[in-house]
Amino acid sequence: MTNIPLTELMQATHPGYSAYCQGKRMKEVQYPMFFDYCLKVCDTFHHYAAKHSTKRPYLYAEYSNTLHQILDYINDLNETDEPAEVFDIRNKLEGACYAFEKQCSDMGKCFKSPENMAEYYDSLGELLTHTIHEYAGII
């Protein structure tokens, strides 16, 4: 059994961890730091999955790619005010967020102990979706 430091997986020293801990009370000014935190968490998970997993670890790279796509959509949203484009971007964001939530759930299922790791990854995906919805005005 491999012993992976949970504080490293959870990136507890990253400034965005405090934004994560605030949950839905997070302020909009903290969103960029939280997004960076999510990227770091996914990259760290991918690193350990590639190093220690016997299951197709290359699939875990998709998790960071989905998150990068979400952030690209946010950038696109910031660069336009055309209603048709905004509507299209919001639709893409919604789909990508739910894909990321599923990926977070899959990441959590990789852990048999401690049991709260599955909850951590689930809450990360849910919080990212909530944050993106708030930011992008998705109802």
Folded structure, characterized:
This protein is mostly helical and about 140 residues long. It has helices spanning about 5-10, 15-20, 30-50, 60-80, 85-110, 115-135. The N and C termini lie far apart (about 45 Å).
Overall spatial form? globular
Structural class: mainly alpha
- What is the N-to-C order of secondary-structure elements (H for helix, E for strand)? HHHHHH
Main sheet overview: none
| Helical percentage | over 70%
What is the helix tally?
A: 6
Q: What is the quaternary state of this protein?
A: single chain
Radius of gyration, CA atoms, in whole angstroms: 15 Å
Mean pLDDT: 89
Total discrete domains? 1
N-to-C span? 44 Å
What fraction of residues sit in β-strands? under 5%
Q: Which residues sit in consecutive blocks of at least 5 with pLDDT less than 50?
A: none
Number of extended strands: 0
Secondary structure blueprint with pairings:
Elements: H1 6-9, H2 16-22, H3 31-52, H4 61-78, H5 83-108, H6 116-136
Helix pairs in contact: 2-3, 3-4, 3-6, 4-5, 5-6
Task: State the main characteristics.
139 residues, mainly alpha
Q: Can I get a quick summary?
A:
The chain is an all-alpha fold.
